[in-house]
Task: structure prediction
Amino acid sequence: MTYTPEEFMAAVIAREVRDGETVAVGTLSPIPAAGVLLARARLAPRATVIIINHEDYWPFHNGSKEFYDFAQRGKFDLFFLSGGQIDQFGNLNLIAIGDHDHPAIRLPGGAGSAMLYYLIRRVILFRGDHTRRTFVERVDCVTSPGSSPPRVIRPGGPWKVVTPLAVLAFNSETKRLELESVHPGVSREQVQQATGFPLVAQREGAVTPPPTDEDLAALRGPIREAVAKVYPVFCRTAFLAA
Amino acid sequence: MPGHIGSDYEKLRPEFKVIADPYSGKDVLLVPAIVPDVSLIHALQADAEGNLLVDEKEDDFLLAQASRVVVASTEEIVDPDALRRAPYGVRLSAIYVTALVPIWGGAHPTACRGRYGIDAAHLEEYLRLARSDTTFRDYLQRYVFDPKDHAAYLAEVGLGGLA
Result:
């Protein structure tokens, strides 16, 4: 069975959606959009799906303000963020690589991430690549920390990290990312090589289950069509022919 | 503002203050309101009084409420009754609006709901030219400084004759 990394990651994300949950997908998140639509089509039919900028999955009528107000009321169960850098503590950097005042690379900025990362119960981090440039020991700037002291109101935080190589999971006791599973055909050494911090394996030899034929049929048919309404360029290459 | 505490925003933005929430006793971050001197809003439609029809998916309404001066442009001026009958969008009262400019294609190269989509080729050209200061200057010269008016801009981007 062949599949693209995007199809694989969407199937991994789909399995994280629990039936009946309210799940939101923010900007620049085509893989999560495909994943949550796959979940709703196959695994979580009663999930409420919200996709920013999507005419069929955007219930709000008062701009992004209403979305953030909804999040502040604790109404979202699952959300997706990414980072120019992600470190072992689940800290995200969307501000700058290098020194903040003289950056090597200026990143786009955090937008709502420093609020949503605290308030949405489970946040899945995703990256279309898995390299030491991204997965660093410590981020250069903390746009949003992975955990907070008890004095801070923080019902939510990091849950998993999904990449083309592996799934990492956030350990809420140690406040660190650990290796949950490697994707088929990927070795643990390969993942460690691509990660700038030591990865403890939660379970030796765990392999991420690949998408099923039914998953792939759904992704390449109706889901590709729905995702293309917001991400036409992504959809040109992310899915194999139906 | 919920969240943010413990992030570098605390260092980078000294005007953000952490206080104890008087209700829960937990730490919360205070952020001063942004009050823009001027905001520019492109409306789907407007009437001659300056009442606007804006896209309810965008933050134009909030922006108008926050700003000292609001300069609106619009695709077309219509009868006040037509604004009330619009199938989508929200009406923003003229009491927020300082000035109004009718300008067809005013959202180009981005999209205007119900009118036209994004001009992907132009945005790709912009992205390419914005990569260096020199080529970005070329972009500004060609599309911003040289066109003598909006009609000339539309002609330059290949939409001449449609206005």
Remarks:
- The two ends of chain B are 44 Å apart (CA to CA).
- Residues 3 and 29 of chain B are 7 Å apart (CA to CA).
- The mean pLDDT of chain B is 94.
